[in-house]
Amino acid sequence: MAPADGRLIDPELDRVEVEGRPVERITERRWLAFHKPAGVVVTTRDPQGRTTVLDLLPPEHQTSRLFPVGRLDAETTGLLLVTDDGELANRVQHPKHKVAKEYLATVRGVPGEADLRRLRQGVELSDGVTQPAEVQLLTSRGQYSQLRVTLREGRNRQIRRMFAAVGHPVEGLTREAFGPIRLGRLHPGGWRRLRPPELKALREAAGLTVG
Fold this sequence. Notes:
With 211 residues, this protein is of the alpha+beta class. It has four helices and 13 strands. The strands form three sheets. Strands 3, 4, 5, 6, 9, 10, 11, 12 and 13 form a nine-stranded mixed β-sheet that branches. Strands 1-2 form a two-stranded antiparallel sheet. The protein has a two-stranded antiparallel ribbon with strand order 7-8. The protein starts with 16 loop residues before the first strand and ends in a 6-residue tail after the last helix.
């Protein structure tokens, strides 16, 4: 039986039973949207002493239980999800669910129709041909162009390698969306908690039925 004398329990250390049955703890998982600035590394700790994602969060979120979902290279900016929900994080990253990630890429030169076709159909990289991507040329000014790119896979530095392969190196890259979650008006280094409708949509994107 639970103590009736007002004693406090430590949910991390104490086991609570009612009529011989353990009481499961109800833990609210944290999901944060974070705008990663350039130069910040996506890891919980960095042996080289570089600034990590967790370093920029408030003290109450700087715990070993929070971790970034997926990765962005140090110079890529934009939306990064941070959570302590390992189960859902694994599902949204699993290749079979093909959760879309949307980016704005600034590249050198103006990709032609042949370049765009290769990007959309698949580009041969050192680790194999990429899956088809959604690529839209937005603007071209002087020596640079801006494109919207949507991927449904997550290889290391994939967009940078794809554009390098077609002769248009990336000069700037920002993730605008991860599945149904969008960066919106978050400023670099800013964060916010995901709203219940966003979490519901994220679970649905990961193939979980929401009652």
